[in-house]
Amino acid sequence: MRYTISGKQIDVGEALTAHVKDELGETLGKYSQRPTDAAVTFSKDAHEYLCDAVVHLSTGLTVQARAHATEIYAAFDACREKMDKQLRRYKRRLKDHQKDRSEPVEFGAADMYVLAAEDDEWEAKDGSLEPIIIAEMEARVPTLSVGDAVMQMELAGTPLLVFRNEKHGGVNVVHRRDDGNVGWIDPRGTGTVQ
Question: What DSSP string describes 78-122?
Fold first, then answer.
């Protein structure tokens, strides 16, 4: 597994690097996953250290965790515990995911845009209300089942996930609702809304 351990305006020493590799390797080894690479980034926010960890599994799924503490080792340990909890929660489904899938998850490319946040900035000189694009990027859209998409959203710790449904190839969205449940949007639409 490839490790990228870095700090934002923090010097990450050899002792911390060795600790991260040992502990993260042990955590991932418990769940017999085949991680391909891990990126762990440390930063400081006022008096606290932040630790962000992203691990890509060979199946195409991504596990992500974030934690903070007043000490850098404690921040990493809290982050690792969150990742351990996520993997433990999905251990059976991850094994089923690997068993059922002979090929890694396919990813398609999609254009992604960042729009200006202020409503005042949306009004162009000609008076139209077109949003102003402030950044253009490329996003990766995985091809997954709905269950795998929900699992990926939870593992990545994101509020929503756009994916291509492996049953029919259409673009779908799963999202965390305000009431705590998960919503699923499938715009194939067999009927019309009146």
Answer: HHHHHHHHHHHHTHHHHHHHHHH-SSPPPEEEEEEEEE-S-GGGG
Sheet with 35-45: strands ordered across:
2-7, 35-45, 48-57, 62-69
Q: Give the CA radius of gyration of the chain.
A: 20
Q: How confident is the model at residue 101 (pLDDT cuts 50, 70, 90)?
A: low
What are residue 108's DSSP bridge partners? 141
CATH T-level fold of 105-185: SHC Adaptor Protein (3.30.505)
Burial class (CB in 10 A: 0-12, 13-18, 19+), 75: buried
- The phi-psi region of residue 101 (left if phi > 0; otherwise alpha if psi is between -120 and 50; otherwise beta) is beta
Return the structure tokens found at 187. Answer: 């715009």
Domain ranges of the chain: 2-97, 105-185
CATH class assigned to 2-97: alpha beta
Q: Which residues pair with 164 in a beta bridge?
A: 143, 171
Instruction: Give the tens place of pLDDT for each residue, 15-27.
Output: 999 999 999 988 8
> Which residues make Cβ contacts (< 8 Å) with residue 89, sequence separation at least 6?
154
| Cβ atoms 1, 37 nearer than 8 A | yes
How many Cβ atoms sit within 10 Å of the Cβ of residue 157? 15
